[in-house]
Design a protein that fits this description.
Layout (H helix, E strand, L loop, with lengths): L1 H16 L27 H7 L3 E3 L9 H16 L5 E6 L6 H21 L7 E7 L10 H7 L1 E6 L1
Parallel strand pairs: 2-3
Antiparallel strand pairs: 1-4, 2-4
Helix pairs in contact: 3-4
């Protein structure tokens, strides 16, 4: 009997020690709250897309960089300098007109143009790879110049 009484008193003492001194009023006090970062994680793919831009666009059948493309690549270069641990892949893409072979070659020229520009701005070439998807991975679907223009691009992605 004594053992049961001692056990019950021990459990009661443990529960009393765990009691919360702060009543739950439904009001957040900030105690124990984890700090949640706002926005994308710095140096991530989402950070690149949101704060810099991940793609540059090209004219029909062209792989030369426009002034808009260079401006985006300048921002990418600065971003890559800020995050030297990040490696990227640059994918060249084309609209769905033309042969598969032609579009693969054109997509590779577009990816190379972006890579070469970033390298000239100081990004180490060992941090960059290129690939051409030709017309196999459109970013926009449908027909017409607006859609085709969206698919003529080079997209930089974090690896």
């Amino acid at each position: 009997m004594r053992l049961k009484l001692l056990g019950a008193l021990g459990v009661a003492a443990l529960l009393a020690g765990c009691a919360n001194d702060h009543p739950n009023t439904g009001i957040a006090t900030g105690e124990g709250a984890a700090v949640q970062p706002s926005g994308p994680v710095p140096g991530s793919e989402a950070d690149l897309v949101a704060n810099v831009g991940d793609r540059v666009f090209f004219a029909l059948n062209q792989s030369g960089l426009t002034s808009d493309a260079k401006a985006t690549l300048d921002k990418q270069s600065d971003w890559l300098a800020k995050y030297p641990q990040v490696s990227v892949q640059i994918a060249g893409n084309c609209d769905d007109r033309g042969t598969e072979e032609y579009n693969l070659a054109l997509g590779q020229r577009r990816a190379n143009a972006a890579r070469d520009y970033l390298a000239a701005k100081g990004t180490t070439s060992s941090r960059m790879t290129t690939i051409s998807y030709g017309k196999d991975r459109p970013t926009a679907t449908g027909e017409g110049e607006d859609v085709w223009a969206q698919n003529r691009n080079a997209i930089t992605s974090v690896q």
